[in-house]
From TrEMBL:
Record SUPFAM superfamilies: Immunoglobulin (SSF48726)
Name of protein: CD4-1 molecule
Keyword Mitochondrion among UniProt keywords: no
Organism superkingdom: Eukaryota
Keywords: Immunoglobulin domain, Membrane, Signal, Transmembrane, Transmembrane helix
PROSITE patterns (alphabetical): IG_LIKE
Domain Ig-like: 30-102, 106-191, 318-404
Length: 466
């Protein structure tokens, strides 16, 4: 009876195998796969691969003895966890159909490991390089699963992706296999080494505001990723604007990064701009506490690789400036012309707004769009103080500039007459004193000493020859 039951079980297992019943495991290159054998008890248990020919991979016995194949393709990849076979760091040569069995017995468990996806080349990548992602499985008879990719933005793509990468391709790509009610998702990471996008609008500053010129690694890109792609040089360049006031209009190299100690080195042209010393966070920005007129121009952040590829980002800097004519120190009654500009006409969509001192004689400007030039025919003392010009885009303030005017009181005609009269009297008194002192000088034949000489040059007591 016992032998009959065993025979029936063997026939059922054999029928399932012949009918094509086996478990499917999806994996990608580099994964660790565990194959479980449905064996309640055994003396010896064998794991085999059904390739062109059936090949023994490993065996284990109930006493703890074990043995593994010595082929190079399987070297250091096989181990046992109980009676389960573990394949570590699986490669393309290790995919196939596996089964376990006891000596002279039927196949107990049949498992087919299908390669789910592959990526060529391995990341990190540079923008413009080619990326191939394959997500496919072998058909199981007439049964064909549905396969597709989800990109980092969760948009559906074909099972085979072949494209030139951009920074938007950085992130998790998901291979989705749908087999009836079963659904398998496996992810692969793609990293594209790139710089963050440059600001679309210029950076606005003034002598009253800080200057920050941004440049950084793209999100999810680390310094280790950059070094893995053999970065050769990272440096800043500056092309001055014609209105910057600089004598030289040539492109200047401001800073370069020493790759040995990850510290910035200046070239003598840095104009007190300071790089952010925070390379681990990928920040390559330049900054200064206050803007200057000569900061106008184009700044380019460059990252050059040994492959010849160059990544760069250009940032335009505009400096808002208030010019006072004739000067900032004035006398009440003088004309004043204040001009607020970027060194060139304002672009469309931008306007200025003036904020004069509280006691200013400037008429109230009802319009929100103030003129760039303010003209006051005769300034008063109330016009002295801080004048602020704000550069606006809609209601958003881009930057502002401040100038301080010093206004002195104007002298009236009577005050001028009084001052001139007092000065004339003082001069007459000095002249009179001088004449009197000259007349009282001691003559050589005079019997006594003049008052002036006695006072200025007293002589010691005694007798003197006349």
């Amino acid at each position: 009876m016992k032998n009959l039951i065993q025979s029936v079980l063997i026939l059922i297992a054999l029928f399932k195998f012949m009918a094509g019943h086996f478990e499917v495991v999806y994996a990608q290159v580099g994964d660790t796969v565990t194959l479980k054998c449905q064996a309640d008890s055994y003396r010896y248990l064998y794991w085999k691969i059904d390739d062109t020919v059936i090949k023994d991979l490993a065996w284990i016995n109930d006493l703890g003895g074990k043995h593994f194949i010595t082929d190079e393709a399987w070297s250091n990849k096989l181990s046992f966890s109980g009676d389960s076979l573990v394949i570590t760091n699986i490669q393309e040569a290790n995919f196939g159909k596996f089964f376990c069995q006891m000596p002279s017995g039927p196949r107990l468990t049949s498992i087919k490991i299908l390669q789910l996806m592959s990526m060529t080349p391995r990341s990190p990548l540079l923008p413009g390089e080619s990326l191939t992602l394959s997500c496919s499985v072998n058909t199981l008879g007439n049964k064909k699963p549905q396969v597709h990719w989800l990109n980092p933005q969760d948009k559906k793509e074909n099972s085979l992706v072949n494209k030139r990468v951009t920074s938007q391709d950085t992130g998790k790509w998901t291979c989705v296999v749908t087999d009836g009610k079963n659904k398998k998702e496996t992810r692969v990471s793609v990293t594209v080494v790139d710089l963050s996008p440059a600001p679309s609008d210029p950076k606005y500053t003034s002598k009253s505001k800080t200057l920050n010129i941004p440049c950084s690694f793209a999100p999810h890109v680390s310094w280790e990723h950059v070094k893995a792609r053999d970065v050769q040089e990272i440096y800043w360049q500056f092309s001055p604007d014609p209105s910057s006031g600089l004598v030289s209009k040539d492109t200047q190299k401001l800073y370069f990064l020493n790759l040995n100690d990850s510290l910035w080195k200046n070239t003598g042209q840095h104009r007190e701009l300071r790089p952010v010393q925070n390379l681990k966070n990928g920040d390559l920005s330049l900054s200064r506490k206050q803007g200057r007129e000569e900061d106008r121009g184009n700044y380019v952040c460059n990252m050059k690789f040994k492959s010849g590829a160059i990544l760069n980002r250009a940032v335009r800097v505009e400096v808002l400036q208030i010019i006072s004519s004739p000067q900032t120190d004035l006398v009440s009654g003088q004309p004043l012309n204040l001009s607020c500009s970027l060194g060139h006409p304002l672009p469309s969509g931008l306007h200025v707004k003036w904020s004069p001192p509280p006691g200013s004689s400037l008429p109230a400007l009802k319009s929100e769009h103030h003129p760039a030039d303010v003209i006051i025919p005769e300034v008063g003392t109330g016009d002295g103080g801080k004048w602020e010009c704000s550069l606006l885009q809609g209601k958003n303030q881009l930057t502002s500039a401040v100038i301080t005017l010093k206004i002195e009181h104007r002298l009236s005609v009577w005050m001028l007459v009084i001052i001139c009269s007092a000065a004339a009297i003082v001069i007459l008194i000095v002249i009179l004193v001088f004449i009197l002192c000259r007349r009282r000088k001691v003559q050589l034949n005079h019997p006594y000493i003049s008052f002036c000489e006695t006072t200025l040059n007293p002589k010691p007591k005694g007798f003197y020859r006349t």
